[in-house]
Design brief:
The protein is an alpha/beta fold. Helix content is about 30%, strand content about 15%.
Length: about 180
């Protein structure tokens, strides 16, 4: 990792538990910081976006990398559209498609429709071929709209602890290689 780079972890619904790869990343170095949310289980877009902005308020944005998972990816895209900050980049893993009927069962407010404006910074979107929360076609659409490099890692489910991606050293290597 580059010495001055700061990594901010943006979890999805429910936060990322102790067995999640985001938690593993966070334990690797003090350069990794989790952006905390007041409400993890019934979030509102305005609060989650504001939490990113507040967490980065005193940072050198040219040295910031956001690491999103699931609804965290959608939040990053909404934050980018709201503030237009140029950061070093973002790793967007398994973005949830908040426009699917199954997502309507979650008590989230304001995350849809999916933001499809280009991100004002480099990004890499990691997707699997069998994610229950986003089809590969939609992940491709998001990557194209956001200007993200798409990395498809095969049948990896939602790329979380439940799909066998606890420590996910390949993900950390992907991040290190990219940054």
């Amino acid at each position: 990792m580059q010495k001055n780079t700061r990594f901010f972890i943006v979890p999805g619904l429910g936060n990322s538990g102790p067995a999640h790869w985001q938690t593993y990343f966070e334990r690797q170095s003090p350069a990794f910081t989790r952006i905390e949310q007041r409400e993890w289980d019934a979030p509102t877009r305005a609060e989650w976006v504001a939490a990113i902005e507040q967490a980065l308020a005193d940072e050198d944005l040219s040295q910031v990398v956001l690491i999103g998972h699931s609804l965290g990816c959608t939040t990053i895209a909404h934050w980018a559209n709201a503030y237009g900050h140029r950061i070093k980049g973002a790793l967007l893993v398994a973005p949830s498609d908040v426009e699917t009927p199954q997502y309507a069962t979650f008590p989230t407010t304001g995350f849809g429709p999916m933001p499809l404006q280009p991100l004002p910074f480099p990004s890499k979107l990691v997707a699997s071929t069998n994610d229950p929360w986003v089809s590969l076609d939609r992940a491709r659409q998001f990557a194209e709209a956001w200007g993200s490099e798409l990395v498809v890692i095969g049948e990896a489910g939602h790329i979380n602890a439940a799909s066998g991606h606890g420590d996910w050293p390949e993900g950390l290597a992907l991040l290190q290689e990219w940054v």
